[in-house]
Design brief:
Layout (H helix, E strand, L loop, with lengths): L1 H17 L19 E4 L2 E4 L2 E2 L4 E3 L9 H14 L3 E5 L9 H7 L18 H13 L3 E5 L9 H10 L12 H18 L5 E5 L23 H16 L4 E3 L13 E4 L2 E4 L11 H4 L8 E5 L1 H4 L12 H19 L3 E6 L4 H17 L3 E2 L41 H17 L2
Parallel strand pairs: 4-5, 5-6, 6-7, 7-8, 11-12, 12-13
Antiparallel strand pairs: 1-2, 2-3, 9-10
Helix pairs in contact: 1-6, 2-4, 5-6, 6-7, 10-11, 11-12
This protein binds 2-acetamido-2-deoxy-beta-D-glucopyranose (4 copies).
The site of one 2-acetamido-2-deoxy-beta-D-glucopyranose has 5 residues, from strand 9.
């Protein structure tokens, strides 16, 4: 295995050198798309020429499961809930230090270093199984290529490995060696599934930002630098050059870069709102106009984004902030004339979930949205315990899939029913 690891490093550098050709900006044509592939028509998704409205599930942990029966069980529960789309991670990278432990324990990983090579793509059969099983249950999959955050490898693994220590997070978006390495991995994944109607869309990165949870933003990723816009354009053009048929999206949180600042008073200070001032790195309005970004994604977590929401004198509630955020993205989607997915959202606590979600879901359904709550849980999995299979703290406890506080399960009917009802409405609207 050690020799394989060395081979991994060597040949991917060679690969990186030869695969740097500039891809042409090819746009996708609905008329040429094979049967069973999702397309867009203005603000709506379509499947074989008919409207495709849906409720989807986020379950990043599904490809990490070890047994086929657990994977099938989860898809069956989703199918019975009316879920039509699954979003999951198409990345799982570990570094050299973690490799021996991973080999010993059977941990799922796809890349043993951020420099991809066929031999290091160790557990991709587990992703294969999810993508093929999805089709058996009439579910299509959104696959994200990497993470802005450190979870499951993520972009900082590339930064630390390739650019070295003391680099800001955003070199991920600009260092040509890192881009070549990312593209080499993306090519592996896209070519593996490019003919599969079980893929709904490719997603360039989960929640791209100038900063991460382990590395700060650098001085060159600032409002107006267009660092993420440029990267989104390059990478969406690259994916399109590999795959003319599947939809492509950013996977972003949907931050805005508005010239007219949004400000609010917090603790006697006028604060410029991070979600609207470009500091996060995205520019939702312009990102959505890119020729090979087929639809928009945004996320919604006001409780963790604004501790101010509970500050005395605040005019917002979690619920009202969420409704405004939805409306802001609808306006951008209307302007771009492309679909949007409210792709992740969550609040803590069953009570909060059961009172706030119906309002958000209703607003989304009223404004031609697809919705994907964070996150769908499964009970009664045969696998148990945790860190061997699922790195970090999110283990399987007594058969329940990982719970980050936002997970909802079928036994929590007040929440579950909100989504099964919404799924029914969406499915009735579909062809
Ligand atoms: C590998 O990742 C672990 C965290 O999982 C970290 O503690 C360690 O320093 C990393 N090693 C290298 C060589 O980057
Ligand atoms: C409350 O709303 C007013 C009017 O829209 C605004 O000027 C003020 O900044 C808001 N206060 C807070 C704390 O958001
Ligand atoms: C429910 O929402 C309120 C208001 O934002 C918050 O203070 C509380 O912590 C939430 N409950 C849970 C369990 O997260
Ligand atoms: C539902 O299942 C979860 C996960 O096992 C558990 O924590 C919870 O207590 C169960 N019941 C309800 C009503 O939430």
């Amino acid at each position: 295995m050690r020799t394989l690891f060395a081979a991994c490093i060597l040949s991917s550098w060679l690969l990186a050198l030869v695969s740097r050709a500039e891809p042409a900006t090819i746009q996708r044509r609905n008329s040429r798309v094979p049967q069973g592939f999702v397309t867009t028509n203005g603000r709506t998704f379509e499947l074989d020429g008919k409207p495709f409205s849906f409720v989807g599930a986020n379950s990043y942990w599904l490809p990490l499961l070890l047994t086929e029966s657990d994977v099938k069980k989860t898809f069956k529960t989703m199918q019975e809930a009316g879920v039509k789309v699954l979003r999951t991670w198409g990345f799982n990278a570990i570094n050299a230090t973690e490799l021996p432990g991973a080999l010993e324990s059977g941990l799922t990983y796809y890349q043993a270093c951020p420099l991809p090579h066929a031999e290091s793509l160790s557990c991709l059969q587990r992703l294969d199984r999810v993508i093929s099983t999805a089709g058996e249950y009439g579910i299509k999959v959104i696959v994200a290529f990497t993470n802005n955050w450190v979870g499951y490898g993520g972009s900082d693994l590339y930064v630390n490995w390739i650019a070295g220590a003391n680099q800001p997070h955003d070199v991920f978006f600009t260092d040509p060696r890192i881009i070549a390495s990312y593209q080499s991995y993306v090519k592996t994944i896209v070519e593996r599934y490019k003919d599969s109607p079980n893929i709904f869309a490719w997603e360039l990165m989960n929640e791209a930002r100038c900063l991460s949870d382990t590395l700060p933003a650098g001085p060159s990723c600032v409002p107006g630098s267009n660092t993420l816009l440029t990267w989104y354009r390059q990478q969406s053009d690259f994916v399109r050059s590999l795959d003319p048929n599947h939809l492509i999206t950013t996977g972003g949180e949907g931050h805005f870069f508005w010239k007219k600042p949004v400000e609010y008073w917090f603790d006697h200070t006028l604060v410029s709102d991070y979600n609207f001032n470009g500091q996060a790195g995205e520019d939702f309005d312009h990102d959505l106009l890119l020729p090979n970004i087929d639809f928009g994604t945004y996320h919604l977590y006001p409780q963790s984004w604004y501790s101010e929401l509970d500050f005395p004198g605040s005019n917002w509630t979690v619920e009202s902030w969420g409704l405004e955020w939805i409306d802001d993205h609808v306006r951008a989607a209307n302007k771009a004339n492309k679909p949007v997915i409210l792709e992740e959202f969550g609040v803590g606590g069953l009570q909060n979930k059961s009172t706030i979600y119906p309002k958000w879901v209703q607003r989304a359904l009223d404004t031609k949205h697809a919705i994907m709550p964070w996150q769908f849980g499964e009970l009664g999995l045969a696998e148990d315990g945790g860190n061997r299979i699922i790195k970090y703290a999110d283990a399987i406890n007594h058969g329940a899939s990982p719970n980050d506080g936002n997970t909802f399960y079928i036994n929590q009917t007040a929440v579950w029913d909100i989504f099964t009802r919404a799924a029914k409405i969406q499915n009735e609207r579909s062809g």
